[in-house]
């Protein structure tokens, strides 16, 4: 792969520092042929203030670590205080010596790197990563600086004038030459994302026998962000930004890091983290806390400055809707009030805007929206009104799963989401997402690498969701760029667009699927396709008991913890959910039903298998996933079951069991078998838009789709009725 040097501008665009901006340009030019990145004041290492952080941190495979600190203002005086030297600046500002802060930061950096024994030489008692430090004066003559009494006391810090920066950068030794794995470990430690990793086993290369052995080995990895995640998470844009990606590409981690980094960097900011799946409350707060606590040395302020809120809220916990209703003296609607509407969230926010729209005050400096594909435009318009700044300055960042719904093939742009002004113009036009902000911060990010779901399972989910091997395809992408965004490479055709009738070959490169399970199975001479298992039954009761027996085997013989098993039911009926629970109980396995008997945000409690609907499973993941009533996929004319199948299957970090009933299940198994025959590629003929389901079908409400499905089922049972209807239509 070609070398890539990233530049992470952080908040530089907001600070108007001309020498820093010029330095960034020089760094990008001098290191263009290196692999690594340059970050502007993004790696704090737990320092309390930005005044204690060097201006630029440069990390490359060739050079190791370079710390560059720019002193932009003129130092008019320096003197020795009680504990250290202090500098007076031309603007009457006084601060501790930048030599001292650079020295202390270097010490912290060394201590952080010592946490990884692969980077530490025990005999020499030092790290193996070279660190080069430099203080760059922009307004002081270097001869003057060298005359300061403090200068004689500094060690291992180069001191230069800004005019010599390009030459100095070019002279830094390129003696490190580490591999990609070691570079990833360094970045993980410096960025603080090591807190999300799984500690490796103390047993060296343990034998892999059970499913749990393979899964745990696949999870034992240093958490390191890929290039796109790093660029997305470590920088705060000065305006709106969209982040897109598949399930499992790390969008929640990226948004949580943005929240934690912004909370530390701008402690006065009021930050809102908004989401749709109630069971995500604890996960999001944990992700924010784990990073923030290490870097800031204290707990996040979830009461006043960081609000983690469900879009609606409930009896146990407030959500954005219930919180706003309370603040503006409005009686909130309940689920019972809107249960008959096609979109309850849209209904409550539409009514809220009618009652309080003009009175809404901007209160948040930064809003992060997770699961944006599940939220209605009325909510986005509300967010627009409660966020500070003009249209181009509102820091609203929304993460959009491109494939959680078949309706999202045509993704809504900002002009459709954020409402209109008094002139009938979009509050946020689509053009706002074009190009980059100053410093190279993209306005529209795509995360294409899947970390959660193993490649065989992800491709099965995609193949079924799009109907690529079904009698009729359900959706299609005609631009190779759209397939690239999903992590695929278009092998054929070799053209700028894919046209109807083209023979299409897509390949999913191994590097775009970061789950290690496939590789571990191959190394043990096992077929990775075993990650997808089928359970075919003749009745629902047989299905319940067959699945329960397999769950028992997974827990008792394969060593998987009960809480790492979830059962996603494509039929959300109460009787079906309870039947599955009774079958587990007969096997001595405890389980929970979030949203039925337990609170909706209870998911994966220790010692319990979770039985969930697709809706409640969104945003969650588990080592083993069972999808039951999957036979509903084959004959569902509304396409919702293909959407639900994709969501359910992509919850899995390991094995996925597909269970269903009768001939429809046989049809689904045949479809999946065809998909696997071409693994790791897809081969199909591109359909025309006329051959795909109509936009009208995809835009129908759930109530309309339910009625449509009922009519189809009725016609199946009454061939004479279907014949009569066709005759009347012909007449």
What does this structure look like?
The chain is built from 26 helices and 28 strands. The model is unreliable at 405-409 and 696-702 (pLDDT under 50). Helix content is 36%, strand content 18%. The chain has four domains: 5-191, no CATH class; 227-447, P-loop containing nucleotide triphosphate hydrolases (Rossmann fold), CATH 3.40.50.300; 455-691, P-loop containing nucleotide triphosphate hydrolases (Rossmann fold, 3-Layer(aba) Sandwich); 701-730, no CATH class. The strands form seven sheets. A six-stranded mixed sheet has the order 1-2-3-4-10-11, with helices on both faces. It has a six-stranded parallel sheet with strand order 14-13-15-16-12-19, with helices on one face. It has a six-stranded parallel sheet with strand order 22-27-26-23-25-24, sandwiched between helices. The protein is globular. Helix 9 crosses helix 10, helix 16 (455-466) packs antiparallel against helix 22 and helix 16 crosses helix 23 (662-677). The protein is α/β, with parallel strands linked by helices and 731 residues long.
Write a brief structural summary:
The chain is an alpha/beta fold and 731 residues long. The protein has 26 helices and 28 strands.
Strand order of the largest sheet: 1-2-3-4-10-11
Tell me the domain tally.
4
CATH A-level architecture of the largest domain: 3-Layer(aba) Sandwich
**Secondary-structure-derived class:** alpha/beta
Total strand segments: 28
Q: CATH superfamily assignment of the largest domain? A: P-loop containing nucleotide triphosphate hydrolases
Rounded average pLDDT: 86
Shape type: globular
Beta-strand proportion = 15-25%
CA radius of gyration is 28 Å
- What level of helicity do the residues show? 25-40%
Query: Which CATH class of the largest domain is shown?
Result: Alpha Beta
User: What is the overall number of helices?
Assistant: 26
Distance between the termini: 63 Å
Low-confidence stretches: 405-409, 696-702
């Amino acid at each position: 792969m070609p070398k890539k040097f990233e530049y992470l501008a952080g908040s530089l665009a907001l600070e108007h520092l001309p020498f820093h901006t010029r330095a960034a340009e020089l760094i990008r030019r001098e290191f263009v042929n290196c692999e690594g990145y340059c970050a502007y004041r993004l790696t704090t290492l737990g320092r309390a203030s930005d005044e204690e952080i060097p201006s630029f941190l440069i990390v490359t495979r060739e050079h190791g670590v370079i710390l560059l600190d720019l002193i932009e203002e003129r130092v008019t005086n320096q003197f020795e205080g009680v504990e250290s030297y202090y500098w007076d600046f031309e603007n009457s500002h006084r601060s501790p010596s930048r030599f001292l802060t650079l020295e202390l930061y270097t010490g912290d950096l060394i201590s952080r790197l010592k946490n990884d024994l692969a980077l530490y030489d025990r005999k020499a008692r030092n790290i193996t990563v070279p660190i080069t430090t430099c203080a760059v004066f922009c307004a002081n003559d270097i001869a003057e600086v060298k005359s300061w009494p403090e200068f004689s006391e500094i060690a291992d810090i180069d001191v230069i004038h800004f005019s010599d920066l390009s030459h100095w950068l070019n002279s830094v030794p390129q003696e490190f030459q580490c591999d990609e794995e070691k570079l990833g470990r360094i970045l993980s430690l410096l960025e603080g994302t090591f807190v999300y990793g799984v500690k490796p086993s103390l047993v060296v290369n343990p034998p892999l026998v059970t499913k749990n052995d393979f899964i745990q080995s696949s999870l034992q990895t240093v958490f390191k962000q890929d290039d796109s995640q790093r660029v997305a998470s470590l920088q705060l844009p000065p305006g709106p930004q969209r982040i897109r990606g598949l399930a499992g590409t790390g969008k929640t981690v990226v948004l949580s890091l943005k929240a934690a980094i912004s909370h530390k960097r701008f402690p006065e900011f009021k930050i809102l983290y908004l989401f749709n799946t109630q069971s995500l409350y604890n996960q999001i707060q944990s992700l924010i806390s784990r990073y923030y606590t290490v870097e800031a040395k204290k707990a996040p302020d979830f009461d006043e400055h960081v609000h983690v809120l469900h879009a609606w809220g409930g009896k146990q916990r407030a959500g954005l809707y219930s919180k706003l209703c309370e603040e503006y003296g409005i009686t909130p609607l309940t689920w019972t009030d809107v249960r008959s509407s096609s979109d309850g969230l849209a209904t409550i926010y539409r009514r809220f805007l009618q009652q309080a729209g003009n009175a809404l005050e901007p209160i948040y400096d930064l809003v992060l929206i997770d699961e944006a594909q599940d939220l209605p435009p009325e909510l986005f318009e509300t967010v627009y009104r409660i966020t500070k700044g003009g249209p181009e300055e509102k820091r609203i960042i929304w993460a959009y799963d491109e494939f959680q719904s078949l309706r999202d093939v045509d993704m809504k742009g900002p002009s459709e989401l954020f409402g209109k002004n008094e002139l009938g113009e979009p509050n946020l036009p689509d053009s706002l997402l074009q190009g980059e902000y100053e410093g190279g911060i993209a306005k529209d990010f795509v995360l294409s690498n899947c970390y959660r779901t193993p490649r065989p399972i992800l491709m099965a989910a995609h193949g079924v969701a799009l109907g690529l091997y079904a009698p009729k395809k359900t959706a299609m992408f005609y631009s190779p760029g759209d397939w690239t965004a999903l992590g695929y490479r278009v092998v054929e055709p070799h053209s700028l667009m894919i046209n109807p009738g083209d023979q299409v070959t897509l390949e999913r490169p191994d590097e775009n699927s970061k789950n290690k399970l496939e590789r571990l199975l191959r190394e043990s001479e096992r077929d990775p396709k075993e990650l997808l298992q089928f359970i075919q039954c003749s009745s629902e009761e047989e299905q319940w008991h067959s699945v329960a027996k397999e769950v028992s085997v997974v827990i008792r013989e394969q060593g998987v913890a009960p809480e790492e098993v979830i059962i996603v039911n494509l039929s959300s009926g109460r009787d079906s959910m309870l039947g599955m629970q009774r079958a587990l109980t007969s096997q001595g396995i405890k389980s929970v039903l979030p949203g039925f008997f337990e609170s909706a945000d209870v998911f994966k409690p220790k010692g319990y298998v979770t039985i969930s609907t697709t809706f409640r499973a969104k945003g969650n993941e588990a080592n083993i996933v069972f999808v039951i009533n999957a036979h509903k996929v084959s004959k569902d004319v509304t396409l919702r079951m293909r959407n639900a199948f994709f969501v359910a299957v992509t919850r899995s970090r390991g094995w996925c069991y597909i269970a269903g009933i009768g001939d429809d299940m046989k049809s689904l198994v045949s479809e999946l078998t065809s998909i696997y025959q071409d693994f790791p590629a897809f081969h199909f003929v591109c359909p025309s838009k006329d051959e795909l389901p109509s936009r009208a079908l995809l835009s129908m409400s759930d109530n309309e789709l339910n009625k449509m499905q009922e009519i189809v089922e009725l016609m199946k049972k009454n061939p004479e009725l279907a014949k009569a209807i066709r005759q009347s239509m012909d007449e």
